[in-house]
What we know:
About 30% of the residues are buried. Residues about 170-175 and about 180-194 have low confidence and may be disordered. β7 (about 105-110) and β8 (about 115-120) form a beta hairpin. By secondary structure, the chain is α+β, with helices and mostly antiparallel strands. It has 3 helices and 12 strands. Helix content is about 20%, strand content about 40%.
Amino acid sequence: xxxxxxxxxxxxxxxxxxxxxxxxxxxxxxxxxxxxxxxxxxxxxxxxxxxxxxxxxxxxxxxxxxxxxxxxxxxxxxxxxxxxxxxxxxxxxxxxxxxxxxxxxxxxxxxxxxxxxxxxxxxxxxxxxxxxxxxxxxxxxxxxxxxxxxxxxxxxxxxxxxxxxxxxxxxxxxxxxxxxxxxxxxxxxxxxxx
Length: 194
């Protein structure tokens, strides 16, 4: 059984060009400590807050790739989730694969192009600590295709969307999620020039 409900953000890692600089920066910013390890075939630096896993830092395997934070959404069955992703108009970038005994990882993109990971729990359940300063708290997806993207997340993960008003310069959003869990938020970008 998964530690997190289907579709709930359960882990993050940052792909960095310089792990030592990343450890210094995030260590000072969030008070993180680090433990070196491996995940699959590559070095993996576990970030901890008060001794509990909150994220990881990973060296970029290709210098041409952007420096990014990867957000992983929980799934009980990564293979079934990738089938739902394809059927709903998304794209599977990296097919499900075991990462040692830690779990099954996959990478996908929604119809608007936003990239996210899937995580099927093995020995690593995901965040050991979240929703406190210095740990994961929120994810947003900015899209120019809110109807298509909202429908995608509803189909794949069962998210429920509800329009939220805008006050001033902040664009209206479509906040979605499963009842009782912290979901990503889908945001419509402001019109060009505003």
